[in-house]
Write a structure and sequence with these properties.
3-stranded parallel sheet; Rossmann fold; 327 residues; 2 domains
């Protein structure tokens, strides 16, 4: 069977940032170059986005924006199935089936639920949020994904999918592939401006659509220690280095590390260098983004709907026959 690699985009924010790029998008794009015979699935997680966004216009705008960014970053739309699960009944159908075999104890282990419990806020969690991992499991298992490139904080979603698939297979017979998460260690966590992990929740991110003025302002805000210009510095302990290193070639990275270690290299210089490398990378991405129309993205989703629906329908028929939904 052809190897399948699957990942997703959740359109709950107005744009993407550097962690999205290096933690999820670039590893996925690398796979499309390296795995010549694999099939690639990239879905728009707007069914998940509804847990946070209840304004239709906002959900639509953000969904299109993020897909345009993926295209601008180099996703090969001829090779990758980019689709909207809300257009494909199999996602909701499988979600229902998996909900019926998943116990409450499993769901109560979810990180977000445990965090809400610790803060006395479980009454504020929507049912859709509580059951979020089951829908994500359906999204993954419907296509028998072998490998799922995700960030470190999304690993639990793949683990839930494996556990739920295993229970279904033991109960009804071998049906689903058990997916494996793929988390490159070097991008498991991308540092934000304040030294914590980069996150929109912390407002410590650099956005892929930030204009030059905003980018410069954010780079200047990157926190540093109190070492003087003359002192030798450990690049691995420097937030400026850890954010900017992903934009460097191996030769550039080696030269920059040598400057840190030698001393006489100021954080002002380090920030100016990081800004120039980021600007050089982001400018053509932003130009490609602007050149992509909303209609192009909408047509792409429509084209892939039929292709992906056929794959999903085949799996749903298999599931329905095994549970006797289909007589």
């Amino acid at each position: 069977m052809t190897k399948r690699i699957l990942t997703w985009i959740k359109p709950t924010w107005e744009q993407l940032h550097l962690w999205n790029l290096f933690g999820a998008i670039r590893p996925f794009i690398n796979f499309t170059h390296e795995e010549k015979e694999a099939e690639f699935f990239l879905f728009l997680a707007n069914m998940h986005g509804l847990t946070q966004i209840h304004d239709p216009a906002t959900l639509k705008t953000r969904s299109i924006t993020i897909l345009k960014l993926y295209k601008a970053l180099g996703i090969d739309t001829e090779k990758v199935y980019i689709y909207n699960p809300a257009d494909i009944p199999g996602h909701a159908q499988l979600n229902r089936v998996l909900s019926c075999i998943t116990i409450m104890g499993t769901m109560e282990r979810m990180h977000s639920y445990k965090d809400a419990l610790a803060h006395g806020k479980t009454g504020e969690i929507g049912v859709g949020t509580f059951c979020y991992p089951i829908l994500m499991a359906a999204d993954i298992l419907l296509y028998d994904a072998d490998l799922v490139p995700v960030g470190k904080d999304q690993k639990q979603h793949v683990e839930y999918a494996r556990d739920i698939a295993g229970k279904f297979n033991r109960t009804f017979g071998e049906t689903f592939t058990l997916p494996e998460p793929f988390i490159p260690e070097e991008v498991a966590t991308i540092i934000g401006l304040d030294g914590r992990k980069m996150s929109k929740s912390y407002n410590n991110y650099i956005g892929l659509l930030d204009d030059e003025k905003t980018l410069l302002k954010k780079v200047k805000q990157i926190s540093t220690d109190m070492k003087t210009v003359e002192e030798s510095k450990n690049p691995d302990e420097c937030n400026v280095y850890n954010i900017g290193k992903f934009f460097l070639t191996p030769a550039e990275d080696e030269a920059r590390r040598a400057k840190y270690l030698a001393g006489g290299y100021s954080y002002k210089e380090a920030k100016e260098y990081a800004f120039e490398k980021m600007r050089a990378y982001l400018k053509p991405v932003q130009e490609k983004y602007k050149a992509t129309s909303d209609e192009e993205i909408i047509n792409l989703l429509a084209t892939n709907k039929a292709k992906v629906s056929a794959i999903a329908e085949k799996k749903i028929q298999d599931v329905y026959q095994k549970i006797w939904f289909s007589l």
